[in-house]
Amino acid sequence: MGAEHPGIEPAEQAAAMMTAAGMPRMPARVMMALVAAPADGYTAADLGERLGVSAAAISGAVGYLQRVHFIRRRSVPGDRRDRYELVPEVFYGSMTSNTTLYERTADLMDRIAEEAGDDSAAHDRSREMASFFRFLAKRMPELVAEWVDARR
C-alpha cells in the first residue's frame, strides 16, 4: 500500500498525533492524506480508497474540514468529480484565528481565580493559566508574522 500511496505511513502517524491533540480521527486522517496528495488533490473516492474507509466516513470528515475552513472542494473542467485540497496557509491561519479564544479563556481563568475565595492553590493555578493564554494571544500573531517573513 505504501508504494501505491506515497507518504501514507507518515500521514497516518501525523493524523494520530492530531487526534491525540483533540482533532476528530477521521478528519485528521483526511487532512493528512490531503497534505500528501498529488498536485491535483484527491476525489472523495480517492480518499476512501487511500484510507480504506467508506464514502460516508469521507463525507462526514470532508464536511467537518470544510466547516472549519481547512480544506476546499474544487471543480476540474472536464471531470464530473470534485477534488479536495488543503486551503493555502491553513495551519498558521488557524493559529492566529484562535487569538480570541485564547483571550476569552484567559478571562474565564480570571473569573475562576476570583471565585476561588480562600483557596490560594486554585487562585494561583487559574491566574497562571490566564497569563499563559494571554501570552498565546499576544505571541501567536507575532510568530505567524515571523514565519511569513522567514518564508520570503
Automatic annotation (TrEMBL):
Keywords: DNA-binding, Transcription, Transcription regulation. It comes from the Bacteria. Pfam families: MarR_2. Residues 22-81 form the HTH marR-type domain. InterPro entries: HTH-GbsR_regulator, HTH_MarR-typ, WH-like_DNA-bd_sf, WH_DNA-bd_sf. This is GbsR/MarR family transcriptional regulator.
